[in-house]
């Protein structure tokens, strides 16, 4: 299942915001409360605010049984970016624990997870065994990036070319830097996913019937 926004979306071909925005991206992702008054119309998904970009389709991964949104995905011709936000303690460091746990889980599945230093700090470069629709075995490469924020933690998973060519993935990393996270004021245990909601002007797209 995937969701697309209606045609009333803001123009995705807007001009480059300029050098000032580039400097802001370097220190992103941002807390929603720290967003500048830049006039950009972002897609409000509750805990995540996403800036539309040319050539990127916004999709939501939804659990078929519960109907809850599990992750936000931005897909392009060369790859995809999966985003999930979690509650975290103030000044906490969920990424240090999370990356060790994920590396262990990947190893148990017969894959590999190697640490490298990237734009946002330590990240995991993963090779995970998967099964194709026809039942044959394959390996899926990914790069998992973790960012600790004020009482929130953002996990970004890069797939496709951005995973296999880190040096050439600057545009995808810029996309991560533009994300804003809204923690909310409610009590949420550390490590719990922050809720993602479907925008009112989105529509459901089901697979075509025969």
Fold blueprint:
Elements: E1 2-5, H1 19-26, E2 30-31, E3 43-44, E4 48-50, E5 57-62, E6 69-76, E7 79-87, H2 94-108, E8 112-118, E9 121-131, E10 137-149, E11 152-160, H3 161-164, H4 170-178, E12 180-181, E13 202-205
Parallel strand pairs: 2-12
Antiparallel strand pairs: 1-13, 3-4, 4-12, 5-6, 6-7, 7-11, 8-9, 9-10, 10-11
Helix pairs in contact: 1-4
What brief labels describe this structure?
globular, alpha+beta, 210 residues, 7-stranded antiparallel β-sheet, 17% helix
What does this structure look like?
This protein has 210 residues and is α+β, with helices and mostly antiparallel strands. Helix content is 17%, strand content 38%. It contains four helices and 13 strands. It has helices at residues 19-26, 94-108, 161-164, 170-178; strands spanning 2-5, 30-31, 43-44, 48-50, 57-62, 69-76, 79-87, 112-118, 121-131, 137-149, 152-160, 180-181, 202-205. The chain has a seven-stranded antiparallel sheet. A four-stranded mixed sheet has the order 2-12-4-3, with no helix packed on it. A two-stranded antiparallel sheet has the order 1-13. A hairpin with a 5-residue loop joins strand 9 and strand 10 (137-149). The longest helix has 15 residues, at 94-108. Mean pLDDT is 85; it is low at 1-26 and 205-210.
